[in-house]
Design brief:
Shape: globular
Number of helices: 7
Structural class: alpha+beta
Number of strands: 12
Distance between the termini: 57 Å
Helix content: 25-40%
Order of helices and strands: EHHEEEHEHEHEHEHEEEE
Number of domains: 2
CATH class of the largest domain: Alpha Beta
Radius of gyration: 21 Å
Mean pLDDT: 84
CATH architecture of the largest domain: 3-Layer(aba) Sandwich
Strand content: 25-35%
């Protein structure tokens, strides 16, 4: 078996392996969006394990520029790890990852790799790749009984991010480490996503730009209902901006819950 870097047209076999390993398909459009069109580094960071002409292993990371104490640092988000079902237990993932980490540090100046491994890969990242657990992502949830108590506000929907949106998101992020989200990144991440639709919901009854970025999904808990995920926010002193998207939705939806992984900065 041999480790090789991605080359054009390898995505044909990569997409086949995704179907085989996970039992579901990934669209070519999504793959290209994630791995070929990334604004942080327009170069696929993908290692492949080949057994002659048979693709048997895959590990990829996605470039992400972070702000670290006001300095831009190139890092990578750990992405798809997969092994052909007939080749399990041979250490393929570990070999691919170690080789890729060394390569992207030496050749691309990638300073760190981070991510959110699932239960199947978490132990391997810690025990074999020297990853460290640094925290647990907590989610906030607003239930339907609470939504009805919030006063309605006027808003508009848009889809394109401007430098003003990016500045407001940065202004509201008080952490020492954060993703560098300029307008180019935000439009790639949300507007250009090939599978999901994200909406920028802006208040229209305030002088300053205040908004949230949302995605409406089918509810996991209530059949026939919807849930609203809040992905980004930019607001000054009006916390109702966090709750406005699901109050006047047109057409109206039956909203079950509202979810966000954002810090709880309001009382």
């Amino acid at each position: 078996m041999e480790i090789k870097k991605y080359k054009p047209s390898d995505e044909i076999e990569i997409l086949k392996l995704i179907s085989l390993a996970f039992g579901q398909n990934m669209s070519k459009e999504f793959w290209e969006w994630r791995y070929l069109n990334n604004p942080s580094l327009e170069k696929p960071l993908i290692n492949l394990m080949w057994d002659k002409d048979k693709l048997v292993g895959h590990y990829a990371v996605s470039p992400v520029t972070l702000n670290v104490n006001n300095e831009k640092v190139l890092t990578a988000l750990s992405m798809t790890t997969m092994t052909h079902p007939d080749y399990g237990g041979r250490g393929i993932f570990t070999d691919l990852a170690k080789n890729l980490y060394h390569d992207i540090y030496s050749n691309d100046n990638v300073q760190a790799v981070w991510g959110f491994p699932n239960s199947n890969s978490h132990y391997g990242f810690l025990s074999k790749l020297d990853w460290k657990d640094i925290g647990i992502v907590h989610f906030l949830r607003l239930y339907i009984d609470d939504i009805s108590k919030i006063e309605k506000v006027k808003y508009k929907v848009s889809y394109d991010f401007s430098a003003q949106h990016a500045a407001k998101i940065k202004e509201n992020n008080k952490g020492e480490i954060s993703v560098h989200k300029d307008a180019n990144y935000l439009n790639w991440r949300y507007r250009d996503h090939p599978d999901n639709e994200y909406q920028i919901i802006e208040l229209t009854n305030h002088d300053n730009l205040e908004f949230v970025v949302i995605k409406i999904i089918d509810s996991f808990d209530s059949p026939g209902a919807k849930e609203v995920d809040i992905l980004e926010h930019g607001y000054d002193a009006n916390p109702e901006v966090l709750f406005l998207p699901y109050l006047n939705l047109n057409p109206p939806f039956l909203i079950g819950n509202v979810n966000t992984g954002l810090p709880a900065t309001i009382s």
